[in-house]
Amino acid sequence: MVVAGLVVLTTACSSSSSHTNFSTSVPATRPPTTVVPPTTTTLPRLVSAAIVQSPSADIGYSTLNDVSCPSNDECLAVGYSAADSIMAPKRLLAERWDGRTWSILPVVAPGRHGSFFTGVDCPAVDACIAVGNSPDVNGPVPFAARWDGNGWTATPIPIPAGAGSALLNDVACGTRSDCVGVGASFQRPGANHGLPLVERWDGTQWTSTAVAVPPNARGGGALASVDCPASGDCHAVGRAYLSADDQNNSAGMLAEHLMDGAWRLERLADPHASNMGGYPALFGVSCASEQSCVAVGQTAQDPGNDLVVSESWDGTAWKLVPVPVPSPDTYYSSATGIDCASSLDCVLVGNSTSDKSGQQSIVARYSRGVWSPVEHSTAPTLFNPNDVSCASGGVCFAVGTAQIGERSLTTTLLIRQASVVP
Question: Which of 253, 277, 286, 409 lies 20 to 30 Å (CA to CA) from residue 218?
Fold first, then answer.
């Protein structure tokens, strides 16, 4: 999953996505406000993590925005490549993991030159749906592509009535023929703020669905991530814009729940979920069942000081779950992706910045209701993860971009999990 538009979602300046609605840019220097990070809980580190080389479609710039692993030996990752820089026209990029290596899958853009993938979900090894966006005169236009294990089939996605453009950031499938894509729609060209957008696939076509925003979201909002533990039951998260000023990105967290055929706003537990001086948002959500979901992102404890946040869903309400930060002097941290192989085991990825260590990637494991950090090394590169997917067999892949000299190339982080005893 990645949030699409014109502003970078992930935290490093070499980040992978160029998008419109979500900005998690890292402060260049430490803000003057003192921040007390969440309490770090020390647990046995039962996970190993190591970089696995991923092929790059171009020698210039490439990234993987999302990944889905239906089994330990089958993963599909999607993103884009560019000839020489992030500003160059994008080309669709898809890669497949066969249990040993990654290989590039040929894919033809369904729209104009410059198309890119933002999200993918695979309910089965031979059934994946990827979503993305293509440039157009009035702004982005969403598209979908289905992978059957042998090739791709493009599927058009309608723009909501009254909208001039739209984009999709993520997709999730309850079954092969029931998928939900989320993003935003825009009424005028060049708009920064839009309205949350949901598109639903019934196995034949996509249809748009209206989604409400909180009463204080005068600037609208956008959805960044979605997961569907069952057909007709989905959770979507993102950001609501609090100001009617299109250039003011003060925001609040946004959570929506599809149940009984209708989308409903959900109340979050974080007291800093809305902050006129900060940029709180939820960037990822994963549901192991209808009664067990975890959402992650960043919270604004003070203006200019955003720290990683996590909330868990028990089927009735959301509650805060503290996430450890890499070091006590961390003044910025954000979770960009999460996946839960079971209700007892999740993996989170993201980025942080501290006085001592500078920028670094975050990997944490959620086990029996508690987060613990996962030691990992991406040296000599700076790994900027966008998302993560975990198979039931204990293997997870985080995907994103690594900075290698002046180039940014696709990179994957293989995370092997130990068994969890209930």
Answer: 286
